[in-house]
Amino acid sequence: MHCALYEAGRCRSCQWLEKPYSHQVSDKQARLQQLLAAMPVAEWCPPVTGAQQGFRNKAKMVVSGSVERPVFGMVARDGEPVDLADCPLYPASFAPVFAVLRPFIARAGLTPYNVARRRGELKFLLLTESTQGGMMLRFVLRSTTKLAQLRAALPWLQQQLPQLQVISANIQPVHMAILEGEEEIALTSRQALEENFNQVPLWIRPQSFFQTNPQVAAVLYATARRWVAALPVSSMWDLFCGVGGFGLHCATPEMQLTGIEISAEAIACARQSAQQLGLEKVSFAALDSTRFATSRDAVPQLVLVNPPRRGIGAALCDYLSRMAPAYILYSSCNPDSMAQDIARLADYRISRVQLFDMFPHTAHFEVLTLLTRQGGTA
């Protein structure tokens, strides 16, 4: 992938850009094998790859510059703004949106926030695109001071960009590099963006997590569904479930499924999907996944976990070891913490592992691992 910003030394987010892509994938596979070297793996599935550019469905842009000439991207270490609107990781559909947003910022009087001076209102623009063609735009503001002006200017923006189906303002008053605050103010009647992977309806709300590489994510969910379908299970937990992607893919009309996620926004999305699918034995709750699990006196036959980078941790590993579900399906964006967790689950063997290259040109990747209780079959 050619990137002028990388060559100019202005952006080095893609640390592996100079490495041939085939070498990137083989190096990631070698790293995963190294992490699991002490744990016998019954089956290594081949790595899953996708597009090398234009694959991101989300842009997180720092807004700098002036109200007349805003810059979307990031701020370099020397304090200079770096324009990332032409980043080759973004699909071609993003450029026309950024082009219209520049004059809109002046129309709405949204002065970019100046970190050094602690002045201005507009901190970030967060743009998300669905594979269905719709988009969600979030304005991250320092306060509600310019909210009335933003609302007044919005009809012009919607006329120019009808693909913006969900628009909101997030209020982040803290003078720190924090992407968003707790308060989200809807600016459109529609508050969730429709997505669909493998004929499973999914919804994205402003404050709910969603995978940034939809092509590879769809394969990841489909793989989990295929692996679970081959297991003799009729009950499962989906812990750290987000908007329910894994659980909804694995659920059948007969499957008893409980999905747990701390984000109420994500749970609202998951419930909406379950209702659309007519799944009557599926329930979702906005709770802490570890606290939910460790307070239960029994476990289902399968526990699926998709934790943040820190992993599931010692407390949940100890609980699962004691309660002994027949299978654990572990999806991880951090193979280091996953390997630590699996080492704690001494009574389980690794039946199957597969790498999903969700983040080309970086050292990061996603992994799906099926663990089977010793003495069980997979």
TrEMBL record:
Keywords: 4Fe-4S, Iron, Iron-sulfur, Metal-binding, Methyltransferase, rRNA processing, S-adenosyl-L-methionine, Transferase
Cross-referenced Gene3D superfamilies: 2.40.50.1070, Vaccinia Virus protein VP39 (3.40.50.150)
InterPro entries, alphabetized: 23SrRNA_MeTrfase_RlmC, MeTrfase_TrmA_AS, MeTrfase_TrmA_CS, SAM-dependent_MTases_sf, U5_MeTrfase_fam
Catalytic activity: uridine(747) in 23S rRNA + S-adenosyl-L-methionine = 5-methyluridine(747) in 23S rRNA + S-adenosyl-L-homocysteine + H(+)
GO molecular function: 4 iron, 4 sulfur cluster binding; iron ion binding; rRNA (uridine-C5-)-methyltransferase activity
Enzyme Commission code: 2.1.1.189
Active site: C333 (nucleophile), C333
Chain positions recorded as S-adenosyl-L-methionine binding sites: Q211, F240, E261, N306
A Gene Ontology biological process term: rRNA base methylation
Protein purpose: Catalyzes the formation of 5-methyl-uridine at position 747 (m5U747) in 23S rRNA.
Name by which UniProt lists this protein: 23S rRNA (uracil(747)-C(5))-methyltransferase RlmC
The organism of origin for this protein: Candidatus Pantoea soli
Lineage of producing organism: Bacteria, Pseudomonadati, Pseudomonadota, Gammaproteobacteria, Enterobacterales
